[in-house]
Design goal:
667 residues; alpha/beta; UDP N-Acetylglucosamine Acyltransferase, domain 1; 41 strands; 27% strand
Length: 667
């Protein structure tokens, strides 16, 4: 958002131009301080008071309102102090003044109290936001181009002091680069009917209307990704990324609002960061790290002192960090894909595994991070874990499909890099650990045990045994998914060529994987980044973003390496010794897992069409009317898109396996 007027040539006002402006109610203590462009049109200024150094562009066009009113560009009823006004700007009815601003071409300021820069400022860049822990210690310095991945590292790797210093030094240098005593309203930005704006930078094409107050912040925006800030908003010490929307009396204090994020309907947040495509409506946030797709829609919902992503908070959901004697220092982690039902409660510290559904109240400080795809229930004041059951839920599959479709980011300058897949090495490694832990609990407690306890949760014998089976199906399905995709993408005519295909991945994917707030990557690649930063080989923020992009685009190669190492464990020998029969057997096991899981998911989907689901339909009619009304509103089981697509995909997979096995027989 630079000054587009820096190369413009200005001249002094002519005496006849001054006369015209005087006749139109304009005043200035020293007209020699006012410079204009050639072809300047003086009668486009009325009732304007000029103070300090003023530069004025040509006002030759008109602006058209949505209601059809066409008005001449110019400046009317305003006081300007140390301002540069670009070409074809429309400024009208400034109650107090505009001071120390560059107003770029085609911008509109129609009704505002004050727009001022009070001195050298970074416009919110460098503001320290106390995320995750209310008591401090995980502060993230926000800046214009902050990504979820950078913030994750800064907040959660505090023990890596050299790395942290390097990161924060880079951000400090960026903040120094944007420090200025002149504000900016970017090209084609539109500000109307607003209150007080102080030390605020406004990007191109931004729309700001009816706000009450904005102090010390940046509204990043672009023509391809315009940002909207709406009625009643009060914002202090903030950064808004391009393409976000903050409207309807939202209150934010010390916050970063990411691309595609929507905050509205009286939502309030302090000391929080919201990354790509989050949604906050009605509720409240305090010291949260909201990774991509963290969504809360309800008035009574509180998110506090936690790390979240791909999370949906039910009405009345609440977390508490008040189990303390030394202040509110406790924090929680709800891993990606967690959902909380209405009136659920979690006492922090706690850590909830990925894609877990939380129902009821939980005060045992549970750690279920090794049990993804689970239900966490309340029973007799205890937290009860049903491991793995959510992997067969049609809702879980639906969620993974809807996230890419709900990406509200536009333009090419995308900051957060997101891995949308439901099953990844990150979640599957957790299923492997979860299965091992369940087997250990079963073996150590004996076959007669009816319940087991682990990390603050109770697991029944039936749930434990089913959890082992669910995880085995999920692990087999994912590994087979990667194998089948690899075999389809690559050609091979001998067993050695097939082995080369299996070995074709990037070996950095062999080990543990991490979720960097939406970006799923191998730990080895992250360690490499850390080493480069610590050694000074990477010394600026754009280089860090480049490294993250490399990780993101290398996902398939990383995943392939993880897959073949897993296959070696399953088969019990090195890939170098694999035979075509080994691969054929793996394909059979994959297809069996696909068929069993798809059958479970179809059964889960059919529940949406049973008699219970029809309660309330056909309200004034017969049982037959009930069925007809239900079908008219919800559709029929046999024509449901999800069920039919699931069946079609299963048929395609069966044909794929048959074709691959036929090819293997020829090797």
């Amino acid at each position: 958002m630079g000054d587009q007027n820096s190369n413009v040539k200005y001249r002094k006002l002519k005496s006849e131009e001054i006369d015209v402006m005087l006749s139109r109610g304009c005043v200035c203590e020293d007209w020699s301080m006012v410079s204009v462009v050639d072809d300047f049109i003086p009668d486009r200024f009325k009732n304007v008071s000029f103070y300090g150094d003023i530069k004025l562009g040509i006002m030759e066009k008109r602006i058209d309102s949505a209601g059809g009113i066409s008005r001449k560009c110019g400046v009317y009823n305003c006081a300007l102090h140390n301002c540069t006004i670009g070409n074809n700007v429309y400024i009208r009815n400034v109650t107090n003044y505009i001071s120390n601003y560059i107003i770029e071409e085609d911008a509109v300021i129609d009704g505002i109290n004050t727009l001022e820069v009070t001195g050298p400022t970074t416009f919110g860049n460098g503001t320290l936001v106390a995320v995750i822990n209310e008591g401090g210690g995980r502060e993230v310095p926000i800046y214009d181009r902050l990504t979820a991945h950078e913030a994750y590292i800064i907040a959660l790797y505090r023990h890596k002091t050299v790395l942290l210093k390097k990161f924060t030094d880079m951000i400090d240098r960026y903040c120094d680069s944007v420090r200025s005593d002149m504000g900016l309203v970017g090209r084609a930005a539109h500000i109307s009917n607003c209150g007080h704006m102080s030390d605020v930078k406004v990007g191109p094409s931004a729309k700001i209307f009816g706000i009450k107050r904005m102090i010390n912040g940046t509204v990043n925006s672009s023509k391809a990704a315009p940002t909207t800030v709406g009625s009643g908003v009060i914002a202090d010490d903030f950064i808004m990324a391009s393409g976000c929307s903050v409207t309807d009396a939202v209150l934010i204090d010390k916050c970063f609002i990411g691309q595609g994020t929507e905050l509205s309907k009286q939502y309030s947040a302090e000391n929080s960061v919201f990354f790509a495509n989050c949604g906050g409506f009605h509720g409240e946030a305090c010291s949260i790290f909201a990774g991509p797709y963290t969504v809360t829609h309800h008035k009574s919902t509180l998110l506090i002192a936690g790390l979240y992503s791909f999370m949906n908070a039910g009405s009345g959901s609440n977390q508490s960090n008040h189990m303390y004697k030394l202040g509110p220092v406790h924090q929680g982690v709800l891993e990606r894909g967690t959902k909380t039902t209405s009136n659920s409660y979690i006492l922090f510290p706690a850590r909830i595994g990925a894609f877990t559904l939380v129902i009821g109240r939980h005060g045992a400080n549970a750690d279920t991070s090794d049990f993804p795809f689970s239900y966490l229930l309340e029973d007799d004041d205890e937290s009860v874990l049903v491991p793995g059951v959510n992997i067969k839920s049609v809702g879980t599959v639906r969620d993974s499909k809807k996230w890419p479709r709900r990406d509200l980011r536009t333009g090419s300058d995308i900051l957060d890099l997101i891995t949308f897949y439901l099953l990844t090495p990150y979640t599957v490694q957790k299923m492997i650990r979860g299965k091992t832990l369940l087997e250990k609990l079963r073996d150590e407690s004996g076959s007669a045990a009816q319940k087991y306890y682990h990390n603050g949760v109770r697991i029944t014998r039936e749930a434990l045994n089913k959890g082992i089976r669910y995880y085995e199906l999920g692990i087999t399905r994912f590994t087979g998914n990667v194998l089948v995709s690899l075999l389809q993408r690559n050609g091979y005519s001998t067993i050695e060529e097939l082995r080369d295909v299996l070995r074709s991945g990037d070996d950095r994917g062999n080990g543990p994987w991490l979720d960097l707030a939406g970006l799923i990557v191998p730990e080895a690649s992250v360690k490499e980044l850390f080493e480069k930063v610590e050694a000074g080989q990477i010394d600026n923020l754009e280089q860090i973003k480049t490294e993250f992009r490399k990780m993101h685009t290398s996902y398939s190669a990383f995943e392939t390496a993880w897959m073949y190492k897993r296959l070696e464990t399953v088969v019990g020998k090195s890939v170098n010794e694999f035979t075509s029969a080994d691969i054929s057997d793996l394909l059979d096991k994959w297809l069996m897992a696909v068929e069993r899981l798809d059958d479970m998911r179809c059964s889960d989907a059919r529940k949406e069409f049973n008699a219970t689901a029809m309660v309330g339909f056909g309200i004034d009619g017969t049982p037959e009317d009930k069925k007809k009304d239900f079908a008219a509103v919800r559709g029929e089981e046999n024509s449901n898109d999800f069920i039919t697509q699931l069946k079609d995909r299963l048929s395609l997979k069966q044909k794929t396996v048959a074709a691959l096995k036929k090819k293997l027989e020829k090797l």
